[in-house]
Structure formats: C-alpha cells, structure tokens
Design brief:
26% helix, single chain, elongated, alpha/beta, 281 residues, six-stranded mixed sheet, 11 helices
Length: 281
C-alpha cells in the first residue's frame, strides 16, 4: 500500500476517525491492519453501493462520504441504504462543499446533505459540518430521547392549533391528526389509501402521485375523498422520494390537487411547503 493511501487518523476519546481520499484505499488499509474495526470512516468518494462494499471491509461504526450531486438514479447516495440494511449510520456530504478525492477537505469543510435513518436516529441532519457530524456519530450526544421509527415530524403549528406533520405513510396517522393536522406522507394517492383517509380523517393531506400510472391510478384517491370533505394534493414522484414524508414536504412539487385543495389556493407547480401552509386554513 502506497503511503499516500494511508488515512489521516483523528483520535477521539470516543473512537477513531479514519479519513481516506478514496473508498478504494480502504481495503488495502485493512489488508495491512486486519484488526481494523469499529472506526468511523470518512472517504472522499461517492456514497454509492460499490464504495459501500469497499468501506464495509473495515467493519465501520459509521461512514461519511460524498453525494456527488446525487446523480442518475440516485447512484451517488445509494450506498446510504446499503449501510442502513447493515445497521451502519451513514451520511453524504454536498460535493460543492468538499473536493472529490480529498478526504481532509471533506472532513474539515464538508456540509452534510443526506443521511440514512440509522444516522438520523443519532440526530445527524443535513446542514451539519462533517467534523461535527463525525463527533456526534461517535458520542451519540445529539441522539433524540425518543426516535420515532415512522419518522413522524412536527413541522409547524398555526395559531388555529392545526399542524403540518410529516410521516412516511398515511397508515401511520394518529388519532390526534383527526380533523386537525395536515399530513405530508409518502405513499401513492391511489384507491388503496382511501380507507385510511376516511378512517383517520386528517384536516388535509399531501401524498405522492406515484408517477401517476395507468389510468391515473396514482391520483384516484384525490377525487374520491372530496365527498368526505378532505382536501388533498399529490407531489410528483420525480420531485420527492417515495417512502419519505419529510422529502414530500421539503422537496415535493405539487402535480395534482382535488377541488377542496384548489379552493384553498393549492396549485400545480407549487412547492409542497407552500401548499401545506395553504391547507392549514
């Protein structure tokens, strides 16, 4: 192994941080230090599946890489879910904040853009500096007292007492949402969810259009619940991640809305954030 491939090692009372210029250097390092395990690995490669396989040779405690602009089919961050399946917290850093192939720049100057659920459960969030996120991953000091596996998140409460709430599925709605909260969820808006809307009766909702699909099946619930007095809208599946209610709210762009939602000012092309505020009224 060339000396230039050796990691920068950051010592901490809570564990080591191995900072590599490339994920491709990890396997070579492990070959020379087979006892390597339980370190936090920072690597200035994309956070894809191939890189994740390489990094896992170090049996890491947690991993931070680059997002490489996410890329086609999300390949730049697909490794986040590879790690998640192995219960390894992982974050990806905005490639415009850290140089590719420069692990020290990534560690010293990077800003987190994406996290997996295992990292979120430790309190890691987009916007954190890499060096801070690394310390929090080691110490657990940002870990919330309770981590809700449905990733329910209260976004905003209006003066009228109604709230905007993100949760990953309408099936995770709670009794407290009934005729009170605007739910931003992340499943499709097809006929199989109509029963959930009628049972839980949120004040309003925003879901995914699921790509719309055959016979507009991904939107069929919108019109169906008008008779129940429930305003609803969908975001384009090309703008927000399905299965991630927070992405619906933060990233989504409205692709369809029922008449009740349109009457409240919801429009196609609007951000889900703006639409959710209008639905609070």
């Amino acid at each position: 192994m060339a000396s230039s491939h050796a990691p920068r090692i950051v010592q901490s009372p809570h564990g080591r941080i191995l900072v590599f210029d490339s994920a491709t250097y990890v396997e070579g390092y492990v070959a020379e230090a087979p006892q390597t395990t339980g370190d936090l690995v920072v690597n200035a490669s994309y956070s894809g599946v191939l890189c994740a396989r390489m990094v896992m040779s170090a049996r890491p405690r947690a991993v931070i890489g680059l997002d490489c602009a996410i890329g086609k089919d999300g390949a730049g961050i697909a490794g986040l879910w590879y790690y998640e399946a192995l219960a390894v917290p992982s974050a990806a850093v905005d490639v415009m904040t850290a140089e590719m192939g420069n692990g020290s720049d990534l560690y010293d100057n990077g800003i987190v853009s994406r996290v997996n659920d295992a990292a979120q459960a430790l309190g890691i969030e987009p916007g954190m500096r890499t060096r801070d996120a690394a310390q929090y991953l080691l110490t657990g000091e940002k870990k919330p007292a309770v981590f809700e596996p449905t990733r329910r998140r209260l976004i905003h409460t209006a003066a009228n007492g109604r709230s905007i709430v993100c949760t990953d599925s309408i099936a995770y709605a709670l009794p407290e949402d009934r005729e009170r909260n605007v739910l931003c969820t992340a499943g499709h808006t097809g006929r199989s969810v109509i029963g959930y809307f009628r049972d839980y009766r949120p004040w309003a909702f925003i879901c995914s259009d699921g790509g719309v699909g055959k016979n507009n099946s991904g939107l069929s619930a919108l019109e169906a619940v008008e008779a129940d007095g429930i305003p609803g809208a969908s975001v384009s599946a090309l703008t927000a991640r399905m299965g991630d209610g927070q992405s619906t709210y933060f990233d989504g762009v409205i692709s369809a809305a029922n008449k009740l939602a349109r009457d409240k000012g919801v429009q196609v092309g609007q951000s889900a954030k703006e639409a959710a505020l209008r639905l609070l009224d």
